[in-house]
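Now produce a polypeptide, keeping tokens residue-aligned:
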Amino acid sequence: MAFTTKLPSQSDFKKVLLERYQEAIAHSRKIGHRVSFRVEVDPAAGAQTITPVEEQPIASDDVFPAEDAGMPDAELEAALAAARQRGRKHVAEIVAGEDMLSAEAFAKLLGTSRVTVNAKRQSGQVLGIDGAKRGFRFPVWQLDNDGRPFGALPALHAMLGNSAWGVYRFLVSRHGALDGRTGLRALQQGDDASVLAAAEGVARGDFD
């Protein structure tokens, strides 16, 4: 039977989705050819449906097993390497931005020491993203009108898995839960409560 769950509660749905995926992998390897299951989302009914794993008909017994029909290893590795390179390039472009300060420059802006800034970074009180060769970089826009780091930063770090890049992405992205504003814009407008509620939704995996 199909499994149905109502939005926005998705924990049961995610659990069953993962179970169906694992079941599909195991069954495919066992029988030696493709299997499938279907996920349907009905926005009108606010429900999602997952069908059981089903075998796909094959034309003959000579068809390769599912695991042998994919991308060749060398081609897959090349694609993954290219994706990693694009990711590194994107990170380098971000940390090289004019709005990114070194620990020394950020400490000077706060009127404190580099040691204190790094301690605040480790505790989530300020946002510092790892730029690899450039070291940690601190977005200047994380300061409020009084020149202090936004008070919501520690809670954002805690909600988003203590991931500095996760907090960064949340702050620079637009969110439906914030009426299309970025997390940063909402903080600049003093709407901390809505920001934390939106971050909690992201952490739960709610659709945005």
Observations:
- The longest helix spans residues 73-95.
- The two ends are 29 Å apart (CA to CA).
